[in-house]
Specification:
13 helices, mainly alpha
Length: about 230
């Protein structure tokens, strides 16, 4: 059961209030939670990398969470081209592989999802990515985990035919909105808008909606794309 501080931090994280979430954690807070929030903040805002790396370094290096978060940091440096290191590609895959081998079922599925994104976005290897996406989606569906599903189908959608693609993108958006996951919802609005025709009124409305939210939460990669 989550402590009061951990519960508050998790709720603030869902709202994209990462600084407040970290501040809500007491000195005895679970280090894995602190590291997850710090990495999440870095990924969305492209700020606070040093703090995120320090929080991950404080974890048991053999733990599935440490493997996964180390890999996510390496992947994001490559993706955003923010201080990429020569071994980031190898570090990312090694971390995901280790997390798949050492975690419980859901941890393994999250690692497979992130591994698929690495193959998809960095290697441009959909053939390698798709089976991992599908395996992760099976686990998300098994547990009724809409948050996890929203991530997977967001990345599966571009590989589908137009009608199914749009259906997946809308479902990802609706799942995130229903869960109150604000930064993820804003990102889903932006991606759906990007997949609609230029003259579509829905696209214009999505653009008007997500931009202020991205600015308020300082979602770095959405502001950069804008």
């Amino acid at each position: 059961m989550l402590s009061d501080d951990a519960y508050v931090a998790r709720r603030l994280q869902l709202l994209g209030e990462w600084d407040a979430a970290l501040a809500a954690l007491g000195p005895d807070a679970e280090p894995e939670l602190r590291a997850e929030i710090a990495v999440d903040r870095w990924f969305f805002q492209i700020e606070g990398h040093e703090e995120a790396e320090k929080a991950v370094a404080a974890l048991d290096p053999a733990s599935p969470t440490a493997h996964l978060l180390t890999a996510r940091l390496a992947y994001s440096r490559l993706l955003f081209q923010r201080g990429p290191r020569t071994d980031d590609r190898a570090v990312a895959e090694a971390g995901y592989r280790a997390a798949v081998e050492s975690g419980d079922e859901k941890q393994r599925a999250w690692a497979e999802y992130h591994w698929a994104v690495l193959l998809d976005n960095i290697d441009e290897d959909p053939t390698g990515a798709l089976p991992l996406y599908e395996t992760a989606l099976d686990v998300a569906t098994k547990y009724g985990d809409g948050y996890f599903e929203s991530y997977i189908i967001r990345h599966l959608a571009p590989h589908k035919e137009p009608a199914e693609r749009m259906s997946m993108l809308r479902r990802s958006l609706h799942l995130r909105a229903a869960l109150g996951a604000r930064p993820q919802t804003i990102a889903a609005q932006a991606l759906l808008a990007d997949n609609l025709p230029e003259n579509d009124p829905e696209r214009a409305e999505l653009m008007r909606t997500f931009r202020p939210g991205a600015e308020e939460l300082h979602i770095g990669w959405l502001l950069h794309e804008d």
